[in-house]
What does this fold into?
Amino acid sequence: MGSSEEKVVAVIMVGGPTKGTRFRPLSLNIPKPLFPLAGQPMVHHPISACKKIPNLAQIYLVGFYEEREFAMYVSSISNELRVPVRYLREDKPHGSAGGLNNFRDLIMEDNPSHIFLLNCDVCCSFPLPEMLEAHKRFGGMGTILVIKVSAESASQFGELVADPVTNELLHYTEKPETFVSDYINCGVYVFTPDIFTAIQGVSSQRKDRANLRHLSSFEALQSATRNPPSDFVRLDQDILTPFAGKKQLYTYETMDFWEQIKTPGMSLKCSALYLAQFRFTSPNLLASGDGTKSATIIGDVYIHPSAKVHPSAKIGPNVSISANARIGAGVRLISCIILDDVEIMENAVVFHAIVGWKSSIGKWSRVQAEGDYNAKLGITILGEAVAVEDEVVVTNSIVLPNKTLNVSVQDEILL
It folds into this structure.
């Protein structure tokens, strides 16, 4: 098949409502993949990266959310990017590889030569065209995006060893107890359709093993709780680990940024990374101003066109302001995400915080935190429709929706 005819399909795993519990209270209002980072839904960043893949035929989002929760977004992004985007709902957990295999017939409908698989809760520059080129050179079944991290943090992820010359994946261990390597799996892959044969091979082995055992009903019950069903296949333990060292899997190293978006704190850090990336990819999305006719802008800032910001306000760095927000005179915003329909009144200060939809912050109030993205109370979060009254200071706290604060709080979770 000539390269001009080769088609590529991308699959983005978006998880489900039971998976985003660490993202509360923000995920109480909106599916985590639709939470805005740098003014764009989280899933928008990998989708727009997929748009750069040559001969892209289709993007599938696979998850457990109700279809209606994604319908509006899928429709608008398809029109905006002029690439068909479709949401596919899993009926039950199939594992990261099983979920891919579950929709095999749809994915293979366009007869693609390559299939990208991405995790939605990953923040990086997504060098997908470069990965595809490298993958074609390697000639295996799949190529994994990898990055070098500190030895201390490596154990939280899938660690791997690759041949320094050929880039072949030689060894893979998911979250090992002892140090294996400071190279980790970024959760971004490109495969040939051979991946489906590999997944089905794992399923068949499971079925065969189950058929070999003639168990008592008690043993069968115990076995069912211990052994996953045959169509439940994990990409890391069931595919990457056994196929390592067999000239099937290769690695492509990114020298750029990479983070996993598990908590609201990390979403604030990743919003900063995407805003910084906009300087090179989409400078038109970044605000500017010197305080004469519009607000003073410092560093990377996104302001939705419908937001109203007073010229005497000072905004940035790392600030994202969503639709219909109103920012009053003398307000200072640093390292924060301001969501839709928020009102921040004059001379209020917000830093290292996420201010939820329809919330209001009174005059001379402060909503602030230390800015430790990994700590539970490292950033302050106001849920939906929280009212902070005048001259109140909220520090290192999480406030659930529909609360009114008329006294200052520190290091608290307000239910």
